[in-house]
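Long-time lurker, finally posting.

We've been working with MetQ/NlpA family ABC transporter substrate-binding protein (Bradyrhizobium brasilense) and I want a structural starting point before designing mutants. I don't trust myself to interpret raw outputs, so I'm hoping someone here can both generate the structure tokens and explain anything notable. Sequence follows.
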Amino acid sequence: MLLRSIFALAGAVAIWSTAAAAETIKIGVTPGPHAQILEAVKPIAAKSGLELQLIEFSDYVVPNAALDAGDIQANSFQNQPYLDNQKADRGYKIEQVGLTVNFPIGVYSRKHKNWADVPDGAKVSIPNDPTNGGRALLLLRDKGAIKLKSDVGFKPTVIDIADNPKNLKFVEVDAAQAPRALDDVDAAVINTNYATQAGLDPVKDPILREDPKGPYVNLIAVRSADKDKPWVKILVDSYHTPEIKEFVQTKFKGAVLPGW
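Top reply, 14 upvotes:
Generated this for you. Predicted structure of MetQ/NlpA family ABC transporter substrate-binding protein:
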């Protein structure tokens, strides 16, 4: 009986020690693939003593503000050009600690089956934030729909359009609202996560699709002051596992691509 009591006590102490050692962080995500992938990461991180609490944000603005303010400890939703722009504009002291996935952006239409069918003077919606709006214009340039001034970098705006053969009328909308604009425009440039939420197929449905290249791989960001903390390495290592790569490839079937 004494030995049983000792073993029971030892087991209880071990369980208590594991629970006490576990660390919980809040990580901001946008709904859709980012949230789904982090849900798959959760049990992997938990094995290393890191509990992930996912906080969903419906736009691209709040997650960095929440991170900088300390309301969350990390976020996973953006690419490097967007983060750089936010830091330059708002002075955030946050930085990338690991790459995640790439979402090739696409042009969608309910009215036209091919880009060639888009008429002169057509309305085309693009995201209204500098990074995603610029990305949309770069896609249209790369596909020959427009020409841009030279040396525009990654954040061109409509005033940087040098040639517009179809005289396209650009309508700037919040990225999260882009799927809702589809009925009101001839074509809309939509980020993959918002496209999937709206029931669109990012592989089959776009009439133009971005090549999976350039700086648009998404990332995990943390506050600069936290970048060397042990939980950061656990988070990134848990994401960068063969299990998560297989999950991304199987779950999204080419709509989302592993970027590490």
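Before you design anything, note these points.
The chain is about 35% helix and 25% strand.
The chain has a mean pLDDT of 91.
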